[in-house]
Amino acid sequence: MLNPQKHDNMPTGFNVCKILAISAFILYILIMYHIYQSSVCTSPVNKKLKQATSSPPPPPSPPTDIRQLVFTIAGSVKTWRSRGSYFREWWRPNVTRGYIYFDKEPTAEFLPWPYDNFPPYRVSENTTKLVVYSRHAKPDVIRIVRTILESFREGDKDVRWYVMGDDDTIFFLDNLVQLLGRYDHTKYVYIGGVSECVKSNLDISFEMAYGGGGFALSYPLVEALVANLDRCIETYPFYLNSDQIISACITDLGVPFTSEKGFHQIDLVHNISGFLSAHPHAPLISLHHLDIVSPIFPTMDRHKSLRHLMTSAKVDQSRLLQQTVCYHKQKNWAFSIAWGYSACIYEQLIPRSILRRPLETFTPWSLNQTPPYNYMFNSRLLTTNSCETPHNFYFHSISNLNNDNNYYDSNSNITTYEVMTTYVRYKPRELPPCSPHHSADYITKIRVYSPATKLNFVGNRGECCDVLNVDGNNNTAEVRIRACKKTEIII
């Protein structure tokens, strides 16, 4: 006889198994359908991703060339008489491109215009018709601001950079091209330098390129800037400076300012030799106000001084003003070389960390300041201390040595030809020696040998040097500039 309780449970267990089987089958169908749909939906994307990852990257842009720069120079007929000769020293006819914008038509003394030596001139558009002109605090600056718009409208082809400057701005073109080549010209880029004086930056801006030192704007930035320029000018009728208006407009576009130490506004007066003899480790891009400061070579006038500096610049712009320090420990002398400009001998082993600070041979641009002056760099005060006052020598001549004078630099593992620059004493120091037996008064000339290769500043340290010889018979010292050893410290 069957157990009634067991018989009653059999249909229940069978139903459970049946339900589980059906549920599993339905779940299987749903999973397979989901997988199929996912495959159908994502296959075009996967195909595109596969194509994107397998496509070769676009070829890199060729290096920036000087012909891809357009210079926009703000000038005036009144100042051109004295500044034209400065301009001639750096402009390269039939190579550089750009325009100089005058406030009015040049007078007869400048005509016919010497296109073989200078860029084409333009007379700035009449800005008095603009609504903002009558209510602007200094309406003349509107003309200068709008030169970038007028230059852009010229429609030059294959332009990567627009470079702004004044008619007394001196550009060092090889260094400028190399510097701009580090930046992506397809992005929005605004590059320049600030004033050397804290007060100037405090009064105007610490985040602005000063036009006298020049600044560079990438093509896309200029394109966006000129589309909004007149509206920007109307927004800032209280700004007294054209650079300030341009900077404000660029800031309103969301573009930051990039400061490079080689742009020099030179908001300094009098003797700037101390400043030039301790240039930062950066390529020299520009100089300004050379018609205001004392001649940079004390035995020449201003125009001849610039021409003389350009003599060394034509051989090696990359090293121009670059400071190199080394020591003659037997005599307790420190040598500081500002290549192509000056050389100094100190009768004490002063560390490079001190010598890199400019001697205050200059004073600030502003006349209402009193010492101590505040600069955007650390400096050293002039002194009559014999151990801290240098013997000064200035650049005299330069020559490429012949093939028999090549030099093997074991630090860089390169055999290179050399360039020799000669520096001649300016005048007696007229101080007693720092030490009775180590006077440098008898040295009248310093020869400096440097590699005939260009400096690369990106990620590299400065150069080192050795004192090769101190010849009492010829009153000459010889120094060789070289690559620093791997762990060498300059002291």
Give your account of this protein's structure.
There is one protein chain. By secondary structure, the chain is α+β, with helices and mostly antiparallel strands. The protein folds into 2 domains: 66-259, Spore Coat Polysaccharide Biosynthesis Protein SpsA, Chain A, CATH 3.90.550; 318-482, Mannose-6-phosphate receptor binding domain (Cation-dependent Mannose-6-phosphate Receptor, Chain A). It is 29% helix and 21% strand. It is built from 11 helices and 21 strands. The chain has helices spanning 4-54, 77-90, 140-145, 147-153, 173-180, 198-203, 219-235, 242-252, 273-276, 302-313, 352-355, and strands spanning 69-74, 97-102, 121-123, 161-166, 170-171, 190-192, 215-218, 258-259, 268-270, 286-287, 323-328, 333-338, 342-346, 362-364, 391-400, 407-409, 414-416, 418-425, 445-451, 464-471, 476-482. The strands form 5 sheets. It has an 8-stranded mixed sheet, with helices on one face. Strands 3-2-1-4-7-6-8 form a 7-stranded mixed sheet. It has a two-stranded antiparallel sheet with strand order 5-10. A hairpin with a 4-residue loop joins strand 16 (407-409) and strand 17 (414-416). Helix 2 (77-90) packs parallel to helix 10 (302-313) and helix 7 (219-235) crosses helix 8 (242-252). Mean pLDDT is 88; it is low at 1-11. Keywords: Membrane, Transmembrane, Transmembrane helix. InterPro entries: DUF604 (IPR006740). The chain crosses the membrane at residues 12-36. This is Fringe-like protein.
